[in-house]
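FORM 7B: Structural annotation worksheet

SECTION A. Query
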Amino acid sequence: MVKKPHSLMGVWLFVCICFCGPVKMIIFVLNKTIKKTYNMSYLFKPTSYVPLLDLQQTELGISKIKDFFQANLSSELRLRRVTAPLFVLRGTGINDDLNGTERAVNFPIMDMGDVRAEVVHSLAKWKRLTLADYKIDTGYGIYTDMNAIRADEELGNLHSLYVDQWDWERVMTAEERNVDFLKSIVRKIYASFLRTEYLVSESFPQIKPCLPLEITFIHAEELRLLYPDLSPKDRETAFVKKHKAVFVIGIGGKLGDGEKHDGRAPDYDDWSTVAEGGLAGLNGDILLWNPVLELAFEVSSMGIRVDKTALLRQLELEGKNERLEMYFHKRLVDGSLPLSVGGGIGQSRLCMFFLRKAHIGEIQASLWPEEMRNECAKLNIPLI
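SECTION B. Predicted structure
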């Protein structure tokens, strides 16, 4: 169990955002809270790891990947870039509560009567509001650079306090609410992955391409039946090791054994609508085989979003009907939000994969337990 943070955390957070710059200083303040929690960090230790790029080459690679990939993603999905918030008002239902247990970093706004704001976890619901407010046409959408702070993250090779991703959302029709359409969107994103991998290999010949030409699709229930004695994560590892690039469909609802493959909030992805083959779910994760860490590596969580029927069903299933009184949920129920498909693609994760890095701290500046820094130094993993 994680102990509650110091009561003054919100005040210090507000001061730091106003006067010190958002990302660096929020992370600094969070470190004061982390010292009050139990150590839950992890570290995968690759054998004989040697970085293929030095620090300067790494920074150049990060810049190339980010510029190239977002241009390709925009072209493939017909997305235009928009500006996104770092924080939203608490109690509006706009913030993403991820698996439903993570605490959002929050602070009082003095000039608004001490109403509290929350640093975003992601922009899943904000983007759908923006599609409506910007009056985006069907078949088109938006993307943005999303920066978040996740104070309850278990820190390690794949997870940081600081989260950066391309958040995207696209308007769709009711007729497109099916698995075939979902797969078509996944294939477009994967095509951008392939082109980016080629750019990296051309820029840095020591990095060899490893992605297959096609991505493999499997439902979480099919995965469970294929590996009935393994945990969900071990199932992913076994299947992705074989196929190298996989989209796992139907994440969030209970499977045939009464357990979920993984958690999802009830009010953005549609994980309950029965679709192809009688299996539930219109969402999923893109997983790539990471040759450095030798594991299934999630780079994107995405899906067709809930319509009114799916929202009401999922709130009931999760015992969250009180959310219907929130601003976002009222707008969805009254029909003023468009049907959409969307997701997030991890920027640091993608750079970590393409540049063959062993730790996300080789890509982004964040805070890590001192023990982890010391161990990474011994393993020749240079954390920024």
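SECTION C. Observations
Residues 1-38 have pLDDT under 50 and may be disordered. The chain has one domain: 42-87+122-378.

SECTION D. Sign-off
Analyst initials: ____
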